[in-house]
Amino acid sequence: MPQLIPFRDINVHASNSHYAFTSPSTPSAQTLVVERPSGDLRLSDGPLLGTKRVSSIAGILGMIKLRLGMSTGAVGYLPANERTTDKYIIVITKAQPMGRLKGHMVYRVIATEFLPLRERTLHDQDEDTYLTLLKTLLKSGPMYFSYSLDITNSFQRQAEADLSQPLWRRADDRFFWNKFIQSDIMGLSRGEGSGSGLRGSPQPGADPFVLPVMFGMMRITTTRIKATPFTFVLITRRSRHRAGTRYLTRGMDEQGHVANFNETEQIVVLNDGSGDLGGFSGVTQNGKINNDGSETQILSYVQTRGSVPAYWAEINTLHYTPELQVRDVETAANAARLHFDEQIRLYGENYLVNLVNQKGREIKVKKAYEDMVRVLVSGPEQATQANYVTPEKITVVEASEKKQKYDRLHYVYFDFHNETKGLKWHRANLLLDQLKSGLWKGQYFRGVDMPADTEGRLEVRNKQTAVVRTNCMDCLDRTNVIQTMIARWTLTRQLIDAGVLQQGEAANDDPEFEHFFRNIWADNADVVSKSYSGTGALKTDFTRTGERTRAGAAQDFNNSVTRYVKNNFGDGPRQDAFDLFTGTFQPPPVGTSLVFVDRRPILVQAIPYVLAACMFFILVAVHITEWPYRANEARQVNWPKLNTPRWAIEGVQETMNRALKDPLVGEFVSKHERGLSNTRLGHLEEGKKRIQ
């Protein structure tokens, strides 16, 4: 019988000619061999001679190809006959147990190591930078995995999965974060691998070496309400599609993938009295019944968040508020259809909650979203509610009749800032009142263990047929408040249905549980925010305590300042790391110019350091000092160098032209610019060529 789940233990053997990976607990399994330096993969049935065991690892994260060959500055590039593919095997050397979910242990990636296929005697500047980017991402990015449970899928999707397939084949493509770097081993399994006699012949022996990893947030905790113990789980899965940083990935791409898309699943496991790292007390994977005859129940509810599905961008120019650009809705309609095709297929009815401002700069994004919904649904009807606070408290756009699948979209706008102004956060419940009908109809997932099933399948008692998709500009701070509110309301409903609470009671009636609930959702907000904006979330004092405090406002100010610095001067390399890891960018062959050389004028390069050294840099940069901006605002931003956005390239060219005409710094910039042709755009022009 083929091995369907990844190996829990792997030994690494090394020689000058290959690496070999074996599972000591499964001696009958085949050995995965990676030839050096070619990177060809094969499976071996017998022991390999001439290898030395060098370490034990928790799993193989994947293989990645960087530059082709080496360059050494003055020495130049290697000759063609000496160029080989620079590949590295990334292995997980340390993993932290996070707890058991339905009897399956879940781990967090703590440490990784890069195993080079070629021992480098020469160094390449770009190669070293690529490695630094990847290692920084892996060190900071919260990544999780399980050897026996598909944590990339919600419990509802797991219940519908084909368990006869290997774990990696069941994984959700959106949340299989290391899929790109696992492509070599997956190709070997499918018969696409390299090596003598292997091409075209499927190699299922490679399946246990493929370990799907999820990027996001995971908490598994035992708690109680009214003396009823249960396991509370919160999982946020971040999509690998259009992954990136705050101002560098906005809106939607041509494939319908939106920026900062996250799926958050709140799970309650009833009749599970085990500790965080323990298994189930009664029902386990072998299907035994609890001693008291009770059923182990899984109650799950899924929400999503994602950028407004239109073509829009915010262009950093060192001003605190970036320049906003929104393209015509018609140009993005096909991409929006692709986006909602997937959303409707996966989640059913979609309640599109929009929290951006109805005035000022954000109104362009609000209008684009509403216009997009009107394009998609049949006979769109709009209803607007007003009150003494705002003329547009809530706006709803829906189809007048059900003719096609896009008529399952229900757009709900809520004027969040005006309604909650003056610390009146309770007024967010006005949105909940608007959504309750859809929440009741949309239900939630409920499954129970099947006692006779040895594979741990769930008997499905109820399905979630709708999802609330929430967004603000960043899909962070306002979104967190609303998602927490909806999660609390749904949890109360689930516990009443399960008999834990009585009608009229609420989950937040228990002060101790409410404290726990608020903090775990605030932790989730911080994780999502850090991966996108570089700091913890704003407004988490309200999420944690239920009150808006002066200390919270001060912390928000600190986070806002930190976001400004990171988004302007630090997000370029972070975006490059995402693009490299997910395969959005693949390093060019030797012979191209070095990507990471900074070709900007010395004046432009120096400005971030000058600003960072100033204690009151915002006051100086925004209100007092004019010359840094006149010296070319967009050039001062640390743009990504691998996949530079087209609008960044155009913005840099425009501001450079203005700077050259400026009477104060134009002459200085001109003298220190490395040529006045298009080559002065340096890596930005290289990025433009790659886009084209």
- Please tell me what the overall shape is: globular
Radius of gyration: 27 Å
- Separation of the first and last Cα atoms: 48 Å
Number of strands: 22
Number of domains: 3
- Class of secondary structure makeup: alpha+beta
What can be said about the biggest beta sheet? 15 strands, mixed
Strand residue content? 15-25%
What percent of residues adopt helix (DSSP H or I)? 25-40%
Uncertain segments: 69-83, 273-288, 622-631, 674-692
Mean pLDDT reading: 84
* Alpha plus pi helix count: 20
Account of the protein in words:
This protein has 692 residues and is α+β, with helices and mostly antiparallel strands. The chain contains 20 helices and 22 strands. A hairpin with a 2-residue loop joins β7 (85-101) and β8 (104-116). The radius of gyration is 27 Å and the shape is globular. The relative contact order is 0.09.
